[in-house]
Amino acid sequence: MNAHPPRLNRPSLDAYWMPFTANRQFKAAPRLLVSAEGMHYTADDGREVLDGTAGLWCVNAGHGRRRIAEAVERQLSTLDYAPSFQMGHPIAFEFAERLAAIAPGGALDRVFFTGSGSESVDTALKIALAYQRAIGQGTRTRVIGRERGYHGVGFGGISVGGLVNNRRMFPLLPGVDHLRHTHDLSRNAFVQGQPEHGADLADDLERLVALHGAETIAAVIVEPVAGSTGVLVPPKGYLERLRAIATKHGILLIFDEVITGFGRLGAPFATDYFGVTPDLITTAKGLTNGTIPMGAVFATRAVHDALMHGPEGAIELFHGYTYSGHPVACAAGLATLEIYEEEGLLTRTNQVQAQWHAAMHALRDCPNVIDIRTIGLIAGIELEPRAGKPGARAYDVFTDCFEKGLLIRVTGDIIALSPPLIAEAEHIDTMASMLGEALRRAA
Ligand SMILES: Cc1ncc(COP(=O)(O)O)c(C=O)c1O
């Protein structure tokens, strides 16, 4: 019956409590990946699986990059770990300098290292609060997120985030409010790039200022393109308007670029792509090509310098992680940046853009597709849910694709694709045709 070779040496699956996974369902029918190279994973039955998601939006330069492996190996045998509190090691400074050289918007060139996207978000929120206090605006303790936002899983991140399943079980930070989301299928379905309608939704920030008082609001955080919630592209003019309103009221603007950072849209950062410059930017994922966990918060000099005050010897920001600026992660990050630069990956998406849009939007005629949205090397394909079974249709497409050899990602009934930035025309065609077949089977 089994068309695939038998799986050898599968470990017991009992002890590992898996994240964001239906554990019992998974363990009854597991999907295990055992190796990866270039655009492909290999499953534990030997099947090749085309990576339509760059792992989890992070393996931007593709898998199995020797240069990163060698840099990590070298660093591990030179300086495996060193503390970053009141101590330093050269590679962290070197990596920060290299990141500053590609500073988002040419402006955010001060870098705070973290261990993940969630830590970057909590860090940025804390920097925003500390900044307001430092400039004499200590009444600004409120932070604003957005409905359907995803900012990781720390208490800060779930509080400003807008995904109900991540929030409902937990107490949240006080003093948080949310802008409305920008998703509007009635006016903006099947759009390539930015939709026309909805810039006025940025005026929600004015509404919250009127409700709470500007002097209580420290910062507003949004994903320039919301990824995990199902690929929501900002309407034309929306980010510009949000920037203007935030500036007018002394509110810091934070872009969560954990997904959009490092070339996903065809520019180094979404900040560059949209030409809208925030005050703080959170990153992770593509920072090290997903190889070693690491995040980074980029800050403007204005934000950074405002905190560089106080008595000599005073720690300016009481915040940091054991793994902030971890030497091995920095080595991975430096090698990753070299690859991005040498292979032009931070802008490479522009070369395959036209084909990407066309291939994805050609899926429009597949059964149950109610929207397709594309920007950079990202696509969101929204399906009509099965009656009374939200998420079931997309989940079936996901498992079917995996069986046939394509990794996609689903959230609810939305399919998200975000392949490595090395994807060639043939990979894009294969993704589109495999997904099309799966959509027809799930009809
Ligand atoms: C926009 C955004 N922010 C934050 C995070 C959290 O990152 P991490 O899972 O590394 O904590 C993610 C993860 O997908 C993300 O997409």
Automatic annotation (TrEMBL):
PROSITE patterns listed in its UniProt record: AA_TRANSFER_CLASS_3
InterPro entries from the UniProt entry: Aminotrans_3 (IPR005814), Aminotrans_3_PPA_site (IPR049704), PyrdxlP-dep_Trfase (IPR015424), PyrdxlP-dep_Trfase_major (IPR015421), PyrdxlP-dep_Trfase_small (IPR015422)
Biological process per Gene Ontology, one example term: biotin biosynthetic process
Pfam families found in the cross-reference section: Aminotran_3
Required cofactor names: pyridoxal 5'-phosphate
Record GO terms (molecular function): adenosylmethionine-8-amino-7-oxononanoate transaminase activity; pyridoxal phosphate binding
Keywords attached to this entry: Aminotransferase, Plasmid, Pyridoxal phosphate, Pyruvate, Transferase
Domain of life: Bacteria
PANTHER family: ADENOSYLMETHIONINE-8-AMINO-7-OXONONANOATE AMINOTRANSFERASE (PTHR42684), BETA-ALANINE--PYRUVATE AMINOTRANSFERASE (PTHR42684:SF1)
Family: Belongs to the class-III pyridoxal-phosphate-dependent aminotransferase family.
Protein name: Beta alanine--pyruvate aminotransferase
Lineage of the organism: Bacteria, Pseudomonadati, Pseudomonadota, Alphaproteobacteria, Hyphomicrobiales
Gene that encodes the chain: bioA
